[in-house]
Specification:
Elements: E1 48-49, E2 52-61, E3 64-72, E4 75-76, E5 81-87, H1 94-98, H2 104-109, E6 113-117, E7 120-125, E8 128-132, H3 142-156, E9 159-169, H4 171-182, E10 189-193, E11 210-215, H5 223-236, E12 251-253, E13 261-266, H6 276-285
Parallel strand pairs: 5-6, 5-9, 9-10, 10-11, 11-13
Antiparallel strand pairs: 1-4, 2-3, 3-6, 7-8, 12-13
């Protein structure tokens, strides 16, 4: 089990194509979390790194060409930066999600590297076929893509390997939740918005901080699924109780955990709350892998 890193049946086949997040911009730049020193990737080298603005990238995994978009500020190629990976909803796209999730401003300021990935075009959900992601522990096509994406990014840019995070909306939220288990040896934390489920049968490498958002009026994904996911992670993260005195309005933090589990419930439907980006980045800034 990891050292503590600080402070929510049946699967609905889900997930929000028509769900278009609308968020305010990310908060102003602030120092990333104190904690373990950065763990530089192989891409850290003397000299300067050029800015990347919506830079298209591909990686081939299992014979499939997979696509993603990178945003990063110009700066020292020796300065390790956190990575925030963002995952769109069903029938969405990396470009569409990038235009709406509010992560680009922080990347262009040099706070972190933002990566928006494209799912597979052959995912079957909601009675149709479209671009999306794995959601269950038995699904195995998308985790290797993210691992290969991170390998490529760590060679291209100077990445802090202790501070890599994943977040997603709807189907992307389910996948971010799954990645926390299947790629938990590389992620420092994950946040799922309007999409998560218990991961029975998945064995994570250890505790990992988790943040969940869900709307009580969500007509696409039942809030009970997110509640079940949070309960599953509270067991994994060794929590003693559901909520602590440090809870914010609308958010409850479990107590006695080896890694934080926070759930934010609101009145919204199947949507990305206006404050979600700021809260997600604040949560990520407080988390770092100890190893």
């Amino acid at each position: 089990m990891r050292r503590p890193r600080g402070r929510l049946l049946g699967v609905v086949l889900l997930l929000g194509a028509a769900c278009r997040p609308s968020v305010a911009g990310a908060p102003g730049a602030s120092a990333w979390a104190a904690g373990p020193p950065p763990r530089p990737s192989v891409g850290c080298r003397p000299g300067a790194a050029a800015a990347l603005v919506g830079a298209a990238r591909t990686v081939t995994v299992g014979g499939e060409v997979r696509r993603y978009i990178v945003d990063a500020a110009a700066g020292s190629a020796e300065r390790p930066l956190p990575v925030v990976l963002a995952l769109h909803g069903f029938r969405g796209s990396a470009a569409g999600f990038r235009a709406r999730d509010g992560l680009v401003p922080g990347a262009t300021r040099g706070d972190y590297i933002a990566v928006h990935a494209d799912g597979r075009d052959d995912v079957q959900l909601l009675g149709g076929v479209g671009r999306g992601w794995d959601l269950a522990p038995g699904d195995a096509r998308d985790t290797p893509f993210v691992a290969a994406l991170l390998d490529a990014l760590e060679r291209e840019r100077c990445v802090d390997r202790r501070r890599i995070y994943a977040t997603g909306f709807s189907n992307g939220g389910f996948f971010a939740n799954l990645l926390a288990c299947t790629l938990g040896d590389r992620l420092a934390a994950a946040a799922a918005v309007a999409g998560a489920r218990p991961l029975d049968g998945c064995v994570p490498p250890g505790p990992i901080p988790m943040l969940f958002f869900h709307g009580l009026a969500d007509p696409v994904v039942s809030p009970r699924l997110t509640a079940g996911a949070a309960a599953w992670w509270r067991r994994i993260d060794g929590c003693r109780g559901d909520a602590g005195a440090g809870s914010e309005a609308g958010c409850s933090a479990a107590v006695g955990c080896t890694a934080e589990v926070v759930v934010c419930i609101g009145p919204q439907g199947h949507a990305w709350p206006a404050d979600a980006t700021a809260r997600i980045l604040g949560f990520f800034r407080a988390q770092a892998r100890p190893d």
